[in-house]
Amino acid sequence: MKHITKRTCFVFVILSLFVILSGCGNNGGGGGEDPHARVSWNFLVYMDGDNNLEYAAIDDFNEMEEIGSTGNVNILVLFDRKPGDDDSNGNWTDTRLFRVTKDSNTSLISSAVIEAPGLTGELNMGDPQTLSTFINYCQTIYPADRTVLTLWNHGGGVYPKAATKPPSKAICVDDTSSGDELTLAEAASALSQANPKIDIVNMDACLMQMIEVAYEWKDDADYLVGSEANVPGDGNNYYSVIDTLTLTPNITARDLALAIVDTYCQKYNGSDTTYSALSLGAEFPGEQTHMQTLIDCLKTFATALLNTPEANLASIQTARSDTYYFGLFNREFGDLYSFAAETINHVSDTTVTTAAENLQTALANAVIHHHETGSYVGAAYGLSILLPSYSEWSFYDGSNQYMTLTFCNAANGIDWYNFILRYTAYDAL
Do 351 and 265 have their domain in common? Predict the structure, then answer.
């Protein structure tokens, strides 16, 4: 496990003073505005193209350049490329920081590189310190009222675990750095260093919109946006999202999260896609968060499933079979709302079904928006959870795998891990 150092914070204080006093350096700005003046929004993209998605990263970068930064919005991208894959745009293979500027050429990257301490050369995008350095540099040198951070790359939800290494398959795999990637815990350690707190974390990566992911990052952002299903290589609709943001720079974080969801599904209308926005923070000052209510209801539901009489396990097995699923191997990531609905349909234990109904209500409040296209319409509701069969559980059941997630920590009182153990033992029969 890698750790963030206190030295990083000291460096950013010095950098701030340097920029204020000297006003020099290559800032990648354009249009005559002061790129270091406080803006309404920072649109940060942690673009890990050091893998087989390099071509898509270049396409998405050019899509951002169609709009470019403005006096109210900074588009800041840390872009890592891979040797021997895509040879366009100078075929550079290291990691570079950009403030994206407008460019009508949709094939050629023209934004200037920012020479930032700790953000040049070949960086490991699977190292949480790289992510933390990127966030802290941008927040210090490019101050903004609100921040959206996109984690761009492959994603695997909680497969085969996302808390410890090696191996893992969480998010942001870096081929040049021996296939290193960010675990959920590592990403949380970087996100927690942000000052101010990130408003929106957007996961432009497959299968990441899971309750376990949300639980890991629940204190580090106000909204979590992503997909239960696989994401096409080109990912988000960056043109439309940035166009919305630059035209309405006073947009709230909630409304921007909704726009990310809708523009994504507009881009892939006719294909099979899912995208949703989950509220992690308080919608109104002083109230319990929808996320906390959701966790409380999930605790009750998991405990009811764990304690239901043995005779009901066959009905739970049927409910699982009828649930809408996503996954890397077969059907191990179940849509949580769908599973609750099927549990109500098939299980006779009123303690379980009442808990399932309350969980559905909590999900409907916490998932502030979900949008599906193609075959997913009416089948998915915005948030999945690990619910494997006996054979699928073999990918997750190691002592340093799923059980090491914060979500599975016995101290938090969520019995989901113990329910999985009970269910998969029954499913093995």
Answer: no
